[in-house]
Here is the input.
Amino acid sequence: MEKEQLFDVFAQRRVYDLEQPRYAGAPIFPSHAPGFVYTLHRRHEPDQGEARTGASGMIYAAEHSGTHIDALSHQAENLSLYGGRKVTPQIQTSTGFTELGVETIEPIFSRGVLLDVARYRGVDCIEADQPVTREDLEATSQQQEVTIGQGDVVLIHTGNATRWKEPAVYLAGVGVSAGASQWLADRQVQAVGADNVAWDIVGVIDPDLNVTLPGHVILLVRHGIYIIENLFLEDLARDRAYEFLFVCLPLKIQGGTGSPVRPIAVVRT
Amino acid sequence: MEKEQLFDVFAQRRVYDLEQPRYAGAPIFPSHAPGFVYTLHRRHEPDQGEARTGASGMIYAAEHSGTHIDALSHQAENLSLYGGRKVTPQIQTSTGFTELGVETIEPIFSRGVLLDVARYRGVDCIEADQPVTREDLEATSQQQEVTIGQGDVVLIHTGNATRWKEPAVYLAGVGVSAGASQWLADRQVQAVGADNVAWDIVGVIDPDLNVTLPGHVILLVRHGIYIIENLFLEDLARDRAYEFLFVCLPLKIQGGTGSPVRPIAVVRT
Amino acid sequence: MEKEQLFDVFAQRRVYDLEQPRYAGAPIFPSHAPGFVYTLHRRHEPDQGEARTGASGMIYAAEHSGTHIDALSHQAENLSLYGGRKVTPQIQTSTGFTELGVETIEPIFSRGVLLDVARYRGVDCIEADQPVTREDLEATSQQQEVTIGQGDVVLIHTGNATRWKEPAVYLAGVGVSAGASQWLADRQVQAVGADNVAWDIVGVIDPDLNVTLPGHVILLVRHGIYIIENLFLEDLARDRAYEFLFVCLPLKIQGGTGSPVRPIAVVRT
Amino acid sequence: MEKEQLFDVFAQRRVYDLEQPRYAGAPIFPSHAPGFVYTLHRRHEPDQGEARTGASGMIYAAEHSGTHIDALSHQAENLSLYGGRKVTPQIQTSTGFTELGVETIEPIFSRGVLLDVARYRGVDCIEADQPVTREDLEATSQQQEVTIGQGDVVLIHTGNATRWKEPAVYLAGVGVSAGASQWLADRQVQAVGADNVAWDIVGVIDPDLNVTLPGHVILLVRHGIYIIENLFLEDLARDRAYEFLFVCLPLKIQGGTGSPVRPIAVVRT
Here is the structure.
């Protein structure tokens, strides 16, 4: 295939937007309150001295607000980060991390796979007390006839994204079990994501790891696998688009523990 | 080509990262001071009650800080936005725009073209008093044997990106003339970008349009063409990668006049 | 009285703290959401290279959050500020006002009077549907045997401050009628204040002035009288401390439309 | 003296404003960058539906920006705060301190003393390499014929406040030596203040305490004495107002390590 034909590959394509809208009052994990605020201070207004005017504003936001990716610096186990790096004041500073910050995440431009566990379960939205298990992932991938390969990005559809406009309901959405996280880690994926606020089941101590949010330890700390949260996966699920080109471009916030992102899934049509 | 071969297309690829690093003290247009600030408030620290700890911070930033895209709401001419929409309090509110906000920009996944005007001029970095003209664009595209098509994203390399670490020098970098902006608008491109702070020449009133930053009027207001600023184009220029898949995913900041972005250029190798 | 005796005057004194505590989640008028946020980024932590360590944080706040004073620039009537100044882009800028900003408020160090309307009404807390009227103020001042003089600061106790911990209840608290505001304006007071979020009755259009928050027009715009909101007046009311030295020191936020404050009332004992 | 005469005491008074103006770009200690930012988002503008309009903005600021007071939680020595409290995650949290936060500072309404060391030295502004020593304080108080008593607030005039508009020059201003801090601590003062950015000499390790900013350890950590920084003392010094009623009302920022303040000095005339 010649270089000049490069763009033809995607001439017939569909781009799925996987970001939830970003505004004040959107669902936010309590640790990251108030989430996201945007205020407009420069305005288009008369008598500015010329015909052209500019408007702009200021953002105040947690880097973990809305649809976002977790950097490896976000989590530690026994005060060690991924790769066994000890947390020290040299690494963890008042303005961010000098290692494993979100700016170290390369642009993600990879094979993506959607596992529609809600559909496998036969529901629109999985209830909160029915966590996504390793067995769900195995059965769903079999049902969908997809295999998970090294370097893939795996997204789990629970149906929770439809509740974005009801923050309390959304935040109480179902999570992914430690076993399911381990199953994905074993497959050496590059990143995982789901349509909930924290990937994991919230507020429960895992009996094996003896921590809350065990998937954060398994994926980020032990295996260096990124987690993407608050994804909008409804259109992908509706169209049964289970394999796609997944693109996610975290902002290079120097030392940040995450970044708001607008991931997309691209398929040819 | 079968669907399962989709990812093979880019199996041999190179991804160019076009975002400048994002940190406090980076070059910022005075209207958008202080630019970008990130502070870490949640820390990994001992005695948190479990082995797992989380760290995270807060961002305070102008949406026009660092590498960013301008939404159509960002600019007006005689108090009209793109498409002739009059600026009213219903459209322009204290928390952003109800029309033409940055959330209305679709994910950009398009043919991109780099015009290396610096190379055409035979310099590493074009001096500030030598603006990029229509003639530069015509001659450069001829020299590079590329054509600009409808819907393309056109990036202009001036060499200024290498000065990012010296804010005063960077901010004084060269701009693009009104004639060059018009030439691009005539070609019905989707978006333009450059490796400087404001696309246009800063601080000069255009004699024809009688405004400062005339390209902002021509492109955003009159033609609905997005502008991407503060791009890092050095690697693309070095590799003479003049045509590529260009991906830019603005955050859906509801009502925002722009968004920080991390654009990429992708070529097959 | 000799100068050296100056401090003896207040040697036997009681200082009443009239500020509500300031924290995220405190009651906030919707226009000023999210109100107040404080995050600690610099920490005391080991291995900082010396025995001394410093901790500090960042504030993100509306200037009208918590106990605060309204500057004259805060309100306009028919786009005129106090003194008939027209609102222009020269006066009203993206970073504040060039006239009548909060930095123009002199330190307030004046006679203060508490009108305990709740006590006059015989209730702990006045219900929301029973606004404070001109008659209330007249009768309360008679009952308390206090006169209101030019330059005084008049504080109105409704009992609402006790509901600070229940934001929804607090925000629905009772307001002061336009007639009562006019009565105070006629007495040429320097400032007024109350233990509610907006001085006025919220959400009602005044039939005479045909505006919401009519007291804001009468006091700030027409008479140049400052309004202090979200005061804590319970201790003053309990002790029937109806006359006092009132001290309020607004921060000189250049161009600001208000300032968080910690007013005090001082009486000799 | 009867209660009703209370306000007569200060009927003939002069109030000195000791706060520097507060705006973006004012001098700021590097740890607290960007200092202070205020942006106006709600505007007076036509067509708002009623004659009344409101304008307001958002503050983003370090609590140690501009004229401010340091709370006891601001400093630690060997990870102990004032009173020997160990720094633990229970006390030091991501949103501030649960003990010794700035909200625990009572309103300061006390005898104040100005020591005009610049005048004693015979200069308008003391040079940076001539720190204020214990001997300066002793000699100045003798020259001024004032004694420092327990509970006083002592302010030191160096003349540096006149350089506020030149941040780099201001920040390089002279500091107070460890010996002078100890002399004040020995007198059991309630608070100290000066017209410089950090009270102490900046950037030097004290040979005795082996720390930078030794006064911060001596005053805040060892003696529980508050420090007020960036005071404007020129008017007091010019009028030789060496004794006064000092009022400083820190905002009750729950858990904060300091607060912006507008202190005043009041004298009878």
User: Anything to note?
Assistant: Chain D touches chain C through 96 residues (CB under 8 Å). Residues 1-5 of chain D have pLDDT under 50 and may be disordered.
